Amino acid sequence: MTDFAPVTLRGDLVTLEPLTLDHHDALAEAVTDGDLWTLWYTTVPRPEGMRAEIDRRLALQEAGSMIPFVARRNADGVVLGMTTFMNIDRTNGRAEIGSTWNRASAQRTGTNTESKLLLLAHAFEALDCIAVEFRTHWMNQQSRAAIARLGARQDGVLRNHQRMADGSLRDTVVFSIIASEWPAVRNELRRRLDAHR
After folding, report:
1. Is the separation of the CB atoms in 84 and 69 below 8 Å?
2. Regarding beta strands 169-178 and 131-137, do their DSSP bridges make them parallel or antiparallel, or are they unpaired?
3. What confidence tens digit (pLDDT) does each residue in 138-163 have?
4. With 173 labelled, which of 43, 140, 160, 188 sits at a CA distance of 20 to 30 A?
C-alpha cells in the first residue's frame, strides 16, 4: 500500500506545506487576487467560504482520500493558493492532483509548474505510484492546456460527470501521467522551470 501522508515539499520557487486552519486568513486574501470564484466552470471558494473549504479538505484528509497543501512563494513567503493529492487509491498506488487554485498574479510565474513537479516527483519517486490523474471541466480551456503542457495525456471525457453549484452539468476531461512517462515529463518540467530561475 502507498503511504500518502502530510509532508512538506520544497522547491526553488515554491514550498507546498500541509494545510492547517492557521492558513485561513492568507488563503482568504489570496483568493481575492483575481476574484477566482467568479469563473462558473471552476470550484474555487469565496473568501467568506474559506473556513468551510479548509474544514472540507481536512475532513477528507482524516478520511484518507486527500492530502491538502498550501502553496507558499519562497521569495517573500506569500501564500499563493491550494492544491491536493485527492481520490487517493493506496492499494493500487494512484492519485489525482487537483482542487488547485493560485492567485492570479502568481499565474505564469513558474510556481504552479514547480508545484506540479514537486507533487509528481513525490508521487512517482517517494510513493512509487503507477499513475497520477488530472481532471478538469470541459469548458476550462486554460486548465486543459496547462495540464497538456505538463505532459499528461488525455484519457477521455466523463460526460455529465458532476453537478456544479449553479446546477449545470460538468463534463470532466481526464488526463494522466503513468510511471513510465515520468522521466520525460520530469525533464520537460525542469527545462520549463529554468526560464523562471
Report:
1. yes
2. antiparallel
3. 988 888 998 898 889 999 999 999 88
4. 188
On whether the CB atoms of residues 103 and 31 are closer than 8 A, the answer is yes
C-alpha cell at 95: 492519485
* Continuous H helices in the chain: 24-30, 50-63, 111-121, 141-150, 182-194
All 3 cell numbers of residue 171?
A: 463534463
Picking from 71, 73, 100, 70, the residue whose alpha carbon sits closest to that of residue 86 is: 100
Contact 82, 45 (CB under 8 A): no
- What counts of helices (H) and strands (E) characterise the chain? 5, 8
Residues 177 and 131: beta-carbon distance below 8 Å: yes
Q: How many CB atoms lie within 10 A of CB 55?
A: 12
Domains of the chain are 9-194 (3.40.630.30)
